[in-house]
Amino acid sequence: MLSETITDEFKPHKVDVCCPSCGEEETVVFYSLDNVPTNSCILHATKAEAEACKLGQIRLCHCEKCGFIFNSEFKQTLTEYSGRYEETQGFSPTFSRFHTNLANRIIEQHDIRDRDVMEIGCGKGEFLILLSQLGQNKGIGIDPSAIPERIVGIEGAERVELIPEYFDPKHCENEPDFLCCKMTLEHITNTAEFIRQIRDGLTEENGTLVFFQIPESLRILRQCAFEDIYYEHCSYFTPGSLGRLFRSSGFRVSEIATEYDDQYLTIEAVPGASSETLEIENDLDEIASLVESFPERVHQAKKRWAGIVEDARSNGEKTLLWGSGSKAVSFLTSLGIGDQVDYVTDINPNRHNHYMPLTGQRIVAPSELPDLKPDLVIIMNRIYEDEIRKDLNALGLDPKIVCL
After folding, report:
1. How confident is the model at residue 2 (pLDDT cuts 50, 70, 90)?
2. Burial class (CB in 10 A: 0-12, 13-18, 19+), 107
């Protein structure tokens, strides 16, 4: 059981740790976790391998000058982005609709048709293929975890090239007309260096439209969404800190928005002189206030969720987590309840019969659930609640459901 109080160690205090986004020499540490898995999406073939996974530390620091939040204890050498990294959300109808609508919107708003497009951190290439299918675009995807053979035979894939490498400015020798980077910047520790590296590959004359999508961190702070804090996510942006980074790196920002139930933060920009700030960027005071109160608030949130799982175990009920990705890893390990959760399931068949890092649960297919008969299902992301309820009903199951 989590302790009743927090110690002084977890109360916000200033440290001599430099901000990777603006260079400010002093930041405020406000959240700490030890012995967390450093690779939430790696497929572990055996329980023993999963339980022996690499571990690291999280020390979240807040820069009062620019609003950026980062893990000062992050070590790139402890993370792995390879063919074993299974991050795709494309098996969810809810996510697929969002993805398709996003691709259509970008194509329509900016006339991205018959163009050269590039995605940095393309994962398995789903978004590039959408851009190819819907706009007849030619795409290049850069990602060390890309698996080129997985897209062979898919409509539109003949115009897409996946390169399993880390991004380098050389990839922009032929400047694309549209460059996107989705759910990648949060994995980058040297954020200013990374954005400037991209900027160095682009010219104002070409006018490449740049689109980034990342987790939105004001929501994490407001809702104490501890499940969205995990090792691979070493960088946490709000609208203001993201806009300030892009402007200081030589981009003219045209739009910053939140979407997907305010879980995602997006920015659109082109190479050029700094533009005026947008209203959505005025968040420095709110960030500072949320950071100050975060340790106590998140402690109470963790106690509540640990209590839900512990009560189920005390009542002889079997608990299932729906979703086996990073949120589930953080939920299990930051609460210390790995031995009290019976099952984990996922609709991604590539994850089935692999094992959860550190806690060791086998990832079961939804088709196994009628035999397992879970009493409590904890959904790792409430945006999928309707979809999951339908899946459970189709399986003839009617468990108690709670959502993060």
Report:
1. low
2. buried
The CB density around residue 235, as the number of other CB atoms within 10 Å, is 24
pLDDT at residue 239 is higher than 70: yes
How far CA 256 is from CA of 111, 252, 349, 378, 383, in Å, comes to: 19, 12, 35, 32, 22
103 pairs with which residues across the strands? none
Average pLDDT over residues 356-366: 98
Ordered structural domains, the chain, with CATH? 316-403 (3.40.50.720)
Q: For residues 164-183, b (16+ Cβ closer than 10 Å) or e, as one string?
A: beebeeebbeebbbbbbbbb
Cα-based distances in Å from 228 to 140, 153, 186, 220: 29, 35, 11, 7
- What six digits make up the tokens of 137? 């675009």
* Residue 107 pLDDT greater than 70, yes or no: yes
Tokens of residue 74, six digits: 């992050």
Residues 21 and 42: beta-carbon distance below 8 Å: no
Nearest residue to 139 (alpha-carbon basis) of 109, 107, 94, 105: 107
Name the pTM for this structure. Answer: 0.96
Rounded to an integer, what distance in angstroms lies between the CA atom of residue 60 and that of residue 34?
Answer: 12
pLDDT band at residue 275 under the 50/70/90 scheme: confident
CA distance 303 to 297: 10
Judged against a pLDDT cut of 80, whether residue 92 lies above it is answered with yes
Residue with token string 């969205």: 228
Single-letter amino acid code for the residue at 328: A
Q: Where are the alpha helices (DSSP H) in 208-283?
A: 217-223, 239-248
Residue 4's pLDDT band (cuts 50, 70, 90): very low
Residue 402 has phi, psi (to 5 degrees) of -130, 150
Residue 344: how many other CB atoms lie within 10 Å? 26
> For the chain, what is the mean pLDDT?
96
Tracing tokens 């050029």 back to the chain, one arrives at 272
Nearest in space to 240 (alpha carbons), one of 283, 210, 274, 269: 283
pLDDT 10s digits, 66-80? 999 999 999 999 999
CA–CA dist 294, 230 (Å, integer) = 16
- Give the closest residue to 337 by CA, choosing from 367, 381, 372, 378: 378
